[in-house]
Amino acid sequence: SVVPAFFLDGFSVLGTHLTWLCVCSVCVATLNIILHLVLKPNQSPKRRSFAHKISRFLKCCIYFFMSCILFHAIIVLYGAPLIESVAETFLFAVLLSTFTSLQCLCLLGPNIQAWIRVFSKNGAMSIWESSLQITSMCSILGAWFGAFPIPLDWDRPWQV
Amino acid sequence: PLAQLEYVQQTDLASTLAVGLGLPISRNSVGNLILPVVGGKTMREQLRFLHLNGFQLSRLLQENTPAYEKDPGYEHFKIAEKSHGNWIKLYLEGNNSEILLNLGKKVLKQYLEALKTLSSSLSKQVAQYDMYSMMVGTVIIMEVLLLLLLSVPKALSKQAEFEVPLSPPLFSLLFYLMCLMLCAVHVIVCTSAESLCYFCSMSWLTAVGVMMLISALMCGILSAIAKIFENSRLPPKNPIVSNSSWSEIDVLILAGTIGHVLSLGASSFIEEEHQTWYFLINTLCLVLCQELCRNNFLLKECDPQHSTDVKQNFGSIGETSECKNIDIPAASNSKLGKATSSSEFIKGSDKWISLATPWIILICCRLLRSLNQTGVQWAHRPDFGHWLTNSEHKSELSFLAAVSLLMIFFLVQRRCSLVSKIAMALGLLGVYSYRAAIGNVIFPWQHGGKDISKGITEARFVYVFVLGIVFTGTKDLLKSQVISPDSSTKSTGLWEVYSGLVLLAALLFRPHNLPVLVFCLLIQTMMTKYIWIPLKFDAAQITIMHYWFGQAFFYFQGNSNGIATVDVSAGFVGLDSYVEIPAIFLTTFATYAGPFLWAIHLLCYLSSEVSR
Fold this sequence. Notes:
Keywords (chain A): Endoplasmic reticulum, GPI-anchor biosynthesis, Membrane, Transmembrane, Transmembrane helix
Organism (chain A): Chaetops frenatus
Distance between the termini of chain B: 91 Å
Order of helices and strands of chain B: HHHHHHHHHHHHHHHHHHHHHHH
Oligomer: heterodimer
Protein name (chain A): PIGF protein
Number of strands of chain A: 0
GO biological process, one term (chain A): GPI anchor biosynthetic process
Pathway (chain A): Glycolipid biosynthesis; glycosylphosphatidylinositol-anchor biosynthesis
């Protein structure tokens, strides 16, 4: 989070929060993808054709986008306004998705059965899958706990 | 040269302001005049102000202390008053010399000292607490609290029993001894008390009654503790450990209840309590969705009822986000078909409706949230309710009210008898004509201005139907209790009482709030049919869920934790002028309609479940 301060003028975490959210998601996403490409935790034995790889990649993109939409819907159902502040809500959904579904997609691929298996009881078979469980659940719980300070008047001008 | 700063008490402000504004000093004020404020006045006026203050304080002392003449402050005041008299005599003689000035300063000092002593003796007295009565009250409250805490584990378990053990003969001796001891203490305290004591002023019979209550509660607590020790020493009879496991619903309910109680410690959270409740029921719906997903899709693991460890708690909460993704490619997955065929739950399209139920409930709650804005933080923003009650949108409001009343009829009439159904239909028609008569909504065939009346006839017409339906329901209930123990009559009777109350609520709610009633009934119906019965929750979980929804619906109506949002117009429905008792009852019912209707629905549900 300190890197953007060097590159952009007039940047602050609270002021230009939309930019910071974008930058954060993009950084985490690229880091994830690079790590998975480099470390290759799930080596598939047979070589896949190029078309198959393209279709897998497209499926990943679609699933990522669908999870963004789902998170956006859940956030609106929790009380976010539907028409105003759409950009902020959607960016929050994108951030949550990068922390949860992108990891799943990188590790397990666009395979729904694998996802059900990993997230069910005693389904994690390797350390990568355990780490996947832990990071996803902690991200979602962290977002849930972050709603607690909303009723407090912390954004009022008279607060010291 | 700057004088040394001296401290003044907060209570001195009242007297100084009164004197400065020329008003009499408040009767119960215990403050002194701050002399430098009136330092620019003549000596005579300053002395007069100080005399006024002293007189007020001595009057207050006289009212509160029988032995006021012995108080040192009072004596000083009388001495200063006499010196003041002498000074006035000298002043009126025209003596303008140094002697007058010095005498005046001496009188000022005397007055100030007297006032200070008077103030401190008054403050000491006002701060005297009635320790004995307070201790007795505290002891009673602590005993009841301990008794409740000790009985809570058994009451919330699967057996749901709540008993207060009073029988063991060993404790009878303790009971009599305690009574005797408390009476002795009471006599000692009351005969030696100098100050007023509320408990001593009660009649002897009441005091003895209170002593017996304290002793009985203490014996109850001791026998409950003894029973707990007995139970923990015995080995457990049947080691069914898995039955006492905690599912995510239990964790959420416990954490939510504790969290809500803790949040009451901060005034910001009390002001915005509606946010807490909306948040909790949203999370509840998501966890219910997760339970439904797991029960419907993961039966191939053959152990959905077993205990889950903490990591898996996290793991299954994640399914909520993946659930919706499962629905779409489900048709292409043959494994799911195998899982559903082995399910013991509702099959086919019912399954999809039951999976969609939590989401429908979430959407309803979100719509209701934007209907009525409550709380202080965003109170300035207009909500949908404001848009509807705007007089330009009367036709939209009328349409919405008519549709809501129609839906209320469809949702409520399913379990009623034929007579109640007709009464309900006529009653809802009466509600709409009442609202049209007082001008909130319009009939489609009237486009001009119609005379606005108080709508008393229409409202009383509806009251007749409400009373009729409630009477029919009570008759069925009594019949099932006394004459023939028939469970279906009992549940019909309870449901008819409930529908009578729904009709009353429809009459008392404002037209823009009728969707709240509709969604309340819709959520109750859907949850009963698709979630509570299939997932077989126990009594404690159902009660807490009803309680949470009741609280949320209190805020969905537009109420908040302040008196300003109470709808006082409900107390005048059908009445010509203010009549105290009906107005109190109607206003209370209209304000607490949400929690009350959910409580009655809980009764209906539990009695129909027991009979199953």
